């Protein structure tokens, strides 16, 4: 009888322990994947770019802003730069006054982390044309926005509100020859810049996971 009681107590303790671990894990995950709601003010931030210049989101009030989470070693990112798709979007919209900020949240020693000199060399090699490449090594900006993948795209309107977040397009592929049917970022910008509501303000991002420190 005593053995049976002991076994039941052991099972109960194990279940309680498993529940506590799951709860802690869920809380940690929730903290790391906070998402800004569409229509809400975009989280403010200040970061230094690959040339040592400081940028704050508030500097660009009155302009459309695109945030592009990037990791040059991620196969999905490689696809968009190898095809020239990302550079074409950067040039098309910066020419229209849009601010395009590439952001890297890879921690030191993790995939996608590079020194400023390495970053600038890679930007030049890829003929990329963002307004700036922001370094977010501690992941503060990425976690504030809930950035999950590279690429993960966000569009902010001139009033500072988030109007799109999600995938760059509808083609989940690492093949540079693969053509997307819909480019969600392009559609969101075109619609918003024409004074229309964004038809699809949220999509599921795809790509490599953002390489946060934790």
Characterise this structure:
This protein folds into 2 domains: 1-28; 33-209, Glutaredoxin (3-Layer(aba) Sandwich). Helices cover 36% and strands 16% of the residues. The chain has 6 helices and 9 strands; from the N terminus they run H-E-E-E-H-H-E-H-E-H-E-E-E-H-E. The strands form 2 sheets. A 7-stranded mixed β-sheet has the order 2-1-5-4-3-7-8. Strand 1 and strand 2 (54-56) form a beta hairpin. It is globular and about 40 Å long.
What is the structure about, briefly put?
By secondary structure, this protein is an alpha+beta fold. The protein contains six helices and nine strands; from the N terminus they run αβββααβαβαβββαβ.
